[in-house]
Amino acid sequence: MEITLNHYLVLSTILFAIGLIGVMRRKNLLMLFFATEILLNSVNIGFAAISHYYGDLTGQMFAFFIIAIAASEVAVGLGLLVLWYKRNGSIDLDMMSTMKG
Amino acid sequence: MFEAVAFYLFAFLTITMFYITVTTQQALYALTALAAGMIFISAFFFILGADFLGVVQIIVYTGAVMALYAFGMMFFDTTRDVVEKRTSPQMIFGMSTLAAILVVAIFVAPIVSDNITAFYPVVEGVGNSQQIGLVLFTKYLVPFEVAAIMLLVAMVAGIVLAGKKMDRSLTLMDCDDAETILQENKES
Q1: pTM
Q2: Measured CA angle at A42 (ends A39, A43), to 5 deg
């Protein structure tokens, strides 16, 4: 019952697939943001596992920078979302088709 | 043995939580399930010996990102059900193709990358936090500083975007003034 690198990579794939499903089937922008967080987290698991099994710290470094990018993405994205909601009263993706031909 | 039990337990919990996040109709359920999933993911980092990463995961994701989402959700109407997109056959086809390619790539990757050697090998005899510090402040100093500037820019952008007209409080002013401001917001 030894846990190998493949176990972690398969788990990472499953979580990534769940995030992809969320990105594709959600209509609400806030829910889309949640799905993006899932994607970033699944990649972090993969990086940490590879870093552990190859004895290399580069994977953990990448995971740190991904966390930093996720934090700033949330700050800017949520600010834009609040602004949009104040203006239009809805954060559904279908409401944003202002350039429909 | 302990590692295997912990891995399978937390894998099950994480997958369940994230599945709830992407399928539920209630925004609040999605938020709480996502926060729980983030905490469970930090358990994997602890199992893998990346203690510092696990602590950062809990502090940044559950402490900062989830709190930000919780505050942001006060602006939105979260009580009503989230409308779902009808999934089309093409989308299901694309999703399953992508997932299959990912799985194949994962099983091929260890074969292709047999001769990988550690670029920054783990230093023996010191804890994980010290190792992180040694690598982060020597090899990755410039990306670290760039990330700091990026976070500063994101903070300023967040304040500028969301903090508009926040110096006026609707609860502290008269009813008439508040009504006119609400009318203005509705018209603009």
Answers
A1: 0.82
A2: 90
